[in-house]
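Re-running Reverse transcriptase domain-containing protein to confirm reproducibility after the cluster update. Everything else is unchanged from the original entry.
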Amino acid sequence: MDKATERFVRGKGERAAWWTEQLKDLKGRVAKARKKLQLTRKREGNLDGNETCRFEYQGLLKRYKKAIKETKVLWWRNFVRFVGNVDPLGAVYKLCRSEKNEGLVGVWDGDRKTETWSDTVDVLLREFFPIDVPVNYELYERAEGVVEKVNYDEVEWSVRSMRKKKSPGMDGVTPEMMTLMWETVPEYVLKVFNACMEEGWVSDEWKVARLVILLKAMDKDRSLPKSYRLICLLSVLGKVFERVLVGRLARVLERRMSRAQFEFVKGLGIQDAWIRVKQFVEWS
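Result of re-run:
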């Protein structure tokens, strides 16, 4: 909220949108009290100044800072209520999102160096995401029968399994926001997921990733594309639905999986397979 209110000003050289006449008056009183304290310090030759003046200045300063904080909170709440509710992805959404990194320039593309941010991104995309060879996938007809609906417990487990404080996808929905959504309107979340199950289709928006470019280490050459690594951030809502499907597949596989399967099994690994081999040798 503080960063958003700091960026939201009425124009170049003008005061912030949340500024009020009461804050202006209080600021003037703080300035007068500070000047009075400085005069007493010079007059009495004491760095602490007059005790009464010092307490007056500190009290007004504390009151001024508190008033600024309360005014920002009140202005932000009114702004979200009257602007954010009308257009959730409008001004409020843009203010809360971090600004684009314009410092990523100067990457080698063959024998030349990129000069703009967009050219650098194009080079990195070609480096890390080569063009796929077209493949003709065989489409299967949907099996007949009643599709088992997604239930409350499945989504509850999926939401609670999410790791918090993670970056969102293109829609800007964080794990914390998803948790609040589930706690507030679970019936709507279930309705969306069950519609996906019945139609055998998921939103294309859930498949679009937000690309984040990270430098592998501070000592890497920033002009080389291989010095970077790319992270694809998908929709949290889509991840919750995928985790529900993974949970269902895991339960089916557990019933049909061989007892000799150790790798790719939760709680087991290649070490367990080696222990089983040693046991067979000892028993033989």
